[in-house]
Design a protein that fits this description.
Blueprint (H helix, E strand, L loop, with lengths): L2 E4 L10 H15 L4 E4 L9 H8 L4 E8 L5 E9 L3 E5 H5 L22 H12 L4 E5 L10 H6 L3 E3 L18 E3 L11 E4 L12 H5 L7 H18 L11 H13 L2 E3 L1 H8 L2 H5 L4 E9 L8 H12 L2 E9 L1 H4 L4 E3 H5 L2 H6 L1 H15 L3
Parallel strand pairs: 1-2, 1-11, 5-6, 6-9, 9-10, 11-12, 12-13
Antiparallel strand pairs: 3-4, 4-5, 7-8
Helix pairs in contact: 1-15
Length: 371
C-alpha cells in the first residue's frame, strides 16, 4: 500500500481545487483501491483560498455577511473563523470579478472605473463584530482598482472631494480626492492583518496596479491612465512609503490601502495556505504528491501552488506528479506532467468536462506507479 498526497490548486474557470482533488483520487482508486489517499487541496491566496482552508481544517467555521458586490448589488459573502479568533476573508467572495452582473452572453459586465472593494470592508466589519482577533485577507480576482479605499471607507475612513462631499465608490473617482480623514477608521484587530498575494506589482507606474491589471478588468488606455493618476493622488494624500513596496498593487491596490492604514504585512499566498492546511505534515511518509493547476509553465515555479508543492516535496524526499489543463513543453520537459488537453484531445473538451479527465489523469498516474 502506498501513501499518496493529492494537493492541486483550482483549475481556474473550470473546477475548484477541492473537486479537482476528489476527481484525481477517484481515478486513482479505480486502479489502486488499497492505497492511502490524503486530499489536501491548495490555493495561492486568491480565489479558492477559503474552500482550500475549510477542506483541510474541520475546526474552521463558515460565517456570512450581507455586503455590496463590486458594483453595489446585494451579495452574501462567505468568510471563515478559525480557532483562536483568526478570520480569513477573500476578495473574490465579496467584490471579485466573477460577482459582476452578466450580459446576455453570460460574460461579466466589467466596470473598471466604478467597481469597488466596499464589500470587502463590510465583510471585515462583520469579522470584527464577531470578535476576530486577527485577519488574513486573500487578495486576487478583484474587479476594482480603488486602492482598497472602498473597503476602508466601509471601515470608517472618510474620503472627500474639494467641496467636502463624500467621494463616490470606484477607482475612477480618485482623481477628485482632496482629503482623507482616518479619525473614524476602525482599529486593526489586535493580532494584526496578513495579506496573501504573490504579485510584486507596486501601487502605481509601469509596474503598478492599473497598468498591470487594469486591462483585464476592462480598462482601456485612457482608463488605465485615469486609474493610475487616481491611485497616485491617493498615495500622495495618504503619505507614507507603502505605495512603493512590492506587492502593494495586489487586488487593484487593495494591498496598499491595508498596508498604509492597518499596518498589514504581506505573505506568500501559496506558502501560507500550505502551512494552514498542513501540507508539510501530510507529506511525511508519503510516496507521491500529485499537484496541479490550469496551466503549467515557468511561472508555476515562482510563488504558485505547484512550485510550492514541488519545493516542499523535495525537502521531504517525496516524488511529484503534475496534472495540468495545459503545459508549456519547456517547463514540463524534466517533470512528470499529464495534461487534460492531451487526454481529452483538445482544450475545449478538457474544459467542458474537467472531472472526467481529472479522473483519467489520476488513473493514468496510478497505472504508472510501480507495484
Amino acid at each position: 500500500m502506498r501513501r499518496i498526497v493529492i494537493a492541486p490548486d483550482s483549475f481556474k474557470g473550470s473546477i475548484a481545487a477541492r473537486e479537482a482533488a476528489r476527481a484525481i483520487a477517484d481515478g486513482w482508486q479505480r486502479i489502486r483501491p488499497d492505497d492511502a489517499l490524503l486530499l489536501v487541496p491548495q490555493a495561492d491566496g486568491g480565489e479558492g483560498t477559503l474552500d482550500a482552508i475549510a477542506a483541510a481544517r474541520p475546526d474552521a467555521r463558515w460565517r456570512t455577511a450581507e455586503v455590496a458586490g463590486p458594483t453595489g448589488e446585494p451579495h452574501t459573502a462567505r468568510w471563515l473563523l478559525l480557532p483562536g479568533g483568526q478570520a480569513v476573508v477573500e476578495v473574490a467572495e465579496s467584490c471579485g470579478i466573477t460577482l459582476l452582473p452578466r450580459d446576455a452572453s453570460g460574460n461579466p459586465r466589467l466596470a473598471a472605473l466604478t467597481a469597488s472593494t466596499r464589500g470587502l470592508g463590510e465583510t471585515l466589519v462583520a469579522a470584527l463584530d464577531a470578535g476576530a482577533e486577527g485577519v488574513t485577507i486573500a487578495l486576487g480576482s478583484s474587479a476594482s482598482t480603488d486602492g482598497g479605499l472602498g473597503a476602508l471607507a466601509a471601515l470608517g475612513l472618510q474620503l472627500r472631494d474639494a467641496a467636502g462631499a463624500t467621494l463616490p465608490d470606484g477607482g475612477g473617482a480618485l482623481g477628485a480626492l482632496a482629503a482623507i480623514d482616518d479619525t473614524g477608521l476602525r482599529a486593526a484587530p489586535p493580532r494584526g492583518v496578513t495579506l496573501l498575494t504573490d504579485t510584486t506589482a507596486r501601487l502605481t507606474g509601469l509596474e503598478g496596479a492599473a497598468v498591470v491589471f487594469g486591462p483585464q478588468k476592462g480598462a482601456g488606455p485612457a482608463d488605465v491612465a485615469l486609474l493610475d493618476a487616481g491611485l497616485a493622488r491617493a498615495a500622495t494624500l495618504a503619505g507614507g512609503s507603502e505605495h512603493v513596496r512590492p506587492g502593494a498593487g495586489a487586488a487593484g491596490g487593495t494591498a496598499w490601502g491595508f498596508l498604509r492604514y492597518w499596518g498589514a504585512s504581506i505573505r506568500s499566498g501559496a506558502e501560507t495556505v500550505a502551512a494552514i492546511t498542513g501540507l508539510d505534515q501530510a507529506l511525511e511518509g508519503a510516496d507521491l504528491v500529485i499537484t496541479g493547476e490550469g496551466r503549467f509553465d515557468a511561472t508555476s515555479l515562482r510563488g504558485k501552488v505547484v512550485g510550492s508543492a514541488i519545493e516542499r516535496a523535495g525537502a521531504a524526499g517525496v516524488d511529484v506528479a503534475i496534472v495540468a489543463g495545459q503545459a508549456d513543453p519547456a517547463a514540463a520537459a524534466e517533470r512528470r506532467v499529464i495534461t487534460l488537453t492531451a487526454l481529452a484531445g483538445s482544450s475545449e473538451a478538457a474544459i467542458a468536462d474537467p472531472t472526467v479527465w481529472l479522473r483519467d489523469a489520476g488513473a493514468e498516474l496510478a497505472r504508472a506507479l510501480e507495484p
